[in-house]
Write a structure and sequence with these properties.
By secondary structure, this protein is mostly beta strands. The protein has no helices and eleven strands. The chain is globular, with a radius of gyration of 13 Å.
Length: 113
């Protein structure tokens, strides 16, 4: 059975940074595309970044380009999302997923002074 466990969220001040991690089990993340989504209350889920199995990276949210960076940690069977210069509008629950394999429970990010 495939599981994804996100971690690394928390409270950070505007301009701060966080690194989210998604550890997969029952699944070899390096063989599949991995996505990071986010969802804030009352908002639709937003695709933030994609890492294809080829290694190609796409940042789908224009608002995060140049600030968020997705990467693999193959020895840990994990995918990370490094988020820099965080702003209040980045506050959301962040989820990792892989198409057809489900998603995790999410980790909450709150950006506030």
């Amino acid at each position: 059975q495939v599981h994804f466990v996100e971690s690394g969220g928390g409270l950070v001040q505007p301009g701060g940074s966080l690194r989210l991690s998604c550890v997969a089990s029952g699944f070899t993340s390096s063989r599949f595309a991995m996505y990071w989504y986010r969802q804030s209350p009352g908002q639709e889920r937003e695709l933030v970044a994609m890492l294809q199995y080829t290694g190609a990276i796409e940042n789908n949210a224009a608002s995060v380009k140049g600030r968020f960076h997705i990467s693999r940690d193959d020895p840990k069977n994990a995918v990370s999302l490094k988020m820099n210069n965080l702003q209040p509008e980045d506050s959301a629950v962040y989820y990792c997923s892989s198409p057809g394999w489900g998603q995790g429970q999410g980790t909450r990010v709150t950006v506030s002074s």
